[in-house]
Write the structure tokens for this entry.
Amino acid sequence: MPSRPSRRTSRVANPGAVPDADDPLLGFVPYLHAAPRRNSITPPRQRAFIAALAATGIVTQAAREIGASLEALYRLRNMPGAEGFAAAWEQAIDRGMQRLEDCALERAIAGEERPVVRGGEVVTTWRRYDTQLLLFLLRQRRSHRYGGAATPADADTRSDAEVYAEIDAMIDRMRENMAAGEEPTD
């Protein structure tokens, strides 16, 4: 066993908690096969897949856990009548992504313990803070404050003339307030 710590020991490498049986995520309407075969992905296997996917966030791992091929799962997901399974799949991926975001945030804030190896032995460790990861998270989560890329929903579709007219109106209101002895409101 190597004496050097591995990245596999991070929280990201270990699965999260498997959802409880009464978790709303597992309350989806499963796909029912018209003529089920021995290897069909039955409702219990569908729920086991969704639970594993929510815990790991990795489709391949969840498929391996229930003993199903990726092809069979993707085919099932796209079948008419499997909308509940497909929606639960998306929700499970969202949980996996939330776990990944939480781990990235923890790593950005708390840093990551790195070994210092000398002569094949770990002599000490140091904490590495990932500034690039921290900046990325700030830009993504607080783009209005830290200058992340604007999304189409954030885009201002007004013309220059409309913006200037709004500014002029704001200045006029401020002048009126000042003339009346009031504090500016805008």
